[in-house]
Amino acid sequence: MAINVLAAADLHLGRRSAGLPANDETLASKNAWQRLVQWAIDKEVDVVALAGDVVDQDNSYYESIGSLQAGFDLLGQAGIQVFMVSGNHDYRVLPQMLSTRYPHVHLLGSSGQWECGIFRKEGETVQFVGRSFPSGSPTQTTSPVSLLRPDQWISGLPTVGLIHGDLFDPLSVYCPIRSNDLAATGIGTWVLGHIHKPYEEDLAGTTIHYPGSLQALSAKEKGPHGFLLLRVEEHRKSIEKVFLSTVRYEDLEVSVDGLNTREAFQAHLVDMVQRDAETRLAELDDVRFLSYDIRLIGQHDQEAAVMGWASASQNELALRIGSEVTASVRSVESQIAPAIGDLNELSREPSPAGILAGTILALRAGTDTPLLTALEAKWENQQRELQRAAVYLPLMAAGPTAATPSDGRGHLLRECNRLLSQLQQQRRANE
């Protein structure tokens, strides 16, 4: 008889999806938790495994406790066991919530030490090895994986490791861990919390999974979101992704070539959103809001006007897709290149426009100029200062966010295009 394990992370009860109607209850993370619980009951899941940050933070305690308790009660009544670890948001809250009343809920390693819990069902066994964030601090700068000893679980049994930590930043203050160290433990499956973007890796027979946030909570969390369903039978394992989020954030490129009136642009934008959304219909069963970040591309000699036409869509567009989904525009970014003719010819001018044209050509070709080298150095310095700022650290939970040199060149290209377009418009106005 197979054992079915529902594995999720980063519920962040107390939060809601950003940039969408504030009065819609389906955007609240507690709603996603309620639907997860009902799904587990309807599908007769045996175990729910949670990899931390179930509650958003201390100041969400009162908002979260009722829905969390109600979910645990329903799971208990259905005979479903819960194995979980705490993360950097709920390291103090979860021990308070679970101190009594829930014999079927097991908070592993609440003392900061590794702990093993075992689930048995009709001859099948799965064990869960986990370690919670220490209760004294929301930060940890060293990996605890080296403290995990083989005698802390039963060798030879199917095993799921649970930990909340950062797989991508060795200097993270939120429990840095390494894939190779996880694989070296001999545990076959790891479920991790902290990074909100779904991620998976297979390393020497060890599978490592970030389920990602259960509900997509911000535009940084692109794509489908939900949980994993692990099925273990006779030491064989299969893993299925289940999408549950009511929100999906996506990027969409829209060309502005040849769109010279507001009406033409508006019709084109609506058509592009409609077409993209319809290609995703098969993945939108639970989605109610499809939110787009629009990137304008192509060439145009009236960038400011086009941006004005596009920006209006952020407040006005609410496009119905199928019977349940509403598509909208969250943001608009310009990567419009100036329609200025021959850049090579312009770059020969000893003018600001000529210098910008030469810089654009170098960026496109992947080469350097003295100005470009100086601009890149300044951009990199500003990025380092930003990433050291305290306000930046919470953003790391949504996934790897460190900017790359290609990000810098992309930003510089957009700015050079914008400035050159403005210069050329001023030149034409003065002629």
Short structural summary:
Helix content is 32%, strand content 25%. It has helices at 29-42, 61-77, 93-97, 179-184, 262-279, 303-311, 313-316, 343-346, 352-365, 370-388, 405-430, and strands at residues 3-8, 47-51, 81-85, 105-107, 115-121, 124-131, 159-164, 189-193, 199-203, 206-210, 226-233, 236-243, 247-255, 289-297, 299-300, 319-321, 325-334, 337-338. It is an alpha/beta fold and 431 residues long.
Describe the structure in your own words.
The protein has 431 residues and is α/β, with parallel strands linked by helices. The protein has three domains: 3-243, Purple Acid Phosphatase, chain A, domain 2, CATH 3.60.21; 246-339; 344-431, no CATH class. It has eleven helices and 18 strands. It has helices spanning 29-42, 61-77, 93-97, 179-184, 262-279, 303-311, 313-316, 343-346, 352-365, 370-388, 405-430, and strands at 3-8, 47-51, 81-85, 105-107, 115-121, 124-131, 159-164, 189-193, 199-203, 206-210, 226-233, 236-243, 247-255, 289-297, 299-300, 319-321, 325-334, 337-338. The strands form four sheets. It has a six-stranded mixed beta sheet, with helices on one face. A six-stranded mixed beta sheet has the order 5-6-7-8-10-9. It has a four-stranded mixed beta sheet with strand order 13-14-17-16. Strand 9 (199-203) and strand 10 form a beta hairpin. Helix 1 packs parallel to helix 2. The mean pLDDT is 88.
